[in-house]
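Reminder to self: tokens first, then the designed residues, so the page reads top to bottom the way the pipeline ran.
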């Protein structure tokens, strides 16, 4: 049996200023943690994850590059981070239930919450549960429809409508 490897998060938190909301996920997919990241790799970079397709529809714009994604988040005041800093993947998939937590990203999230008091949006009920364990008094928490293709109760278009209602609009810089 192969030994299980500790994976460290490959991305720094994205913290625009001012920040209105913070999207918190669990941990990047295994495709993003093998050291073969190209310059456009960023959060939710698995080809199966739907986040960027959802946001393309919600904001009616292309989000093909890391720069495109960060530009949108700057304009809308959206930050992004993950709840876990390091994990062990107990099975060969990206499912949250296969993540054994080695280290939480608590210090970073706490710093962001104190600096901005953003509305927090979790990308799954699992992330919401973990967030509430760490920050039980933080009231501004909501859950977005999961961008996982496994959450197929809603289409990408239906998810995009919900994201559009919940997330702040993008304001182009003058």
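Designed residues (174 positions):
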């Amino acid at each position: 049996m192969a030994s299980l490897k500790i994976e460290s998060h490959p991305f720094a938190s994205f913290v625009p200023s001012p920040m209105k909301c913070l999207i918190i996920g669990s941990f990047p997919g295994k495709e993003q943690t093998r050291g073969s990241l190209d310059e456009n790799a960023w959060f939710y970079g698995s080809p199966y994850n739907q986040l960027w397709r959802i946001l393309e529809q919600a904001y009616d714009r292309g989000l093909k590059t890391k720069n495109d994604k960060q530009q949108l988040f700057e304009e809308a005041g959206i930050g992004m981070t993950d709840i876990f800093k390091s994990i062990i993947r107990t099975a060969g998939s990206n499912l949250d239930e296969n993540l054994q937590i080695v280290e939480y990203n608590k210090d970073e999230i706490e710093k962001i919450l104190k600096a901005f008091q953003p509305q927090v949006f979790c990308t799954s009920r699992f992330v919401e549960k973990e967030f509430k364990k760490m920050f039980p008094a933080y009231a501004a928490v909501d859950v977005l429809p999961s961008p996982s293709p496994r959450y197929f109760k809603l289409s990408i278009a239906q998810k995009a409508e919900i994201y559009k209602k919940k997330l702040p609009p993008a304001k182009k810089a003058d």
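The two ends are 58 Å apart (CA to CA).
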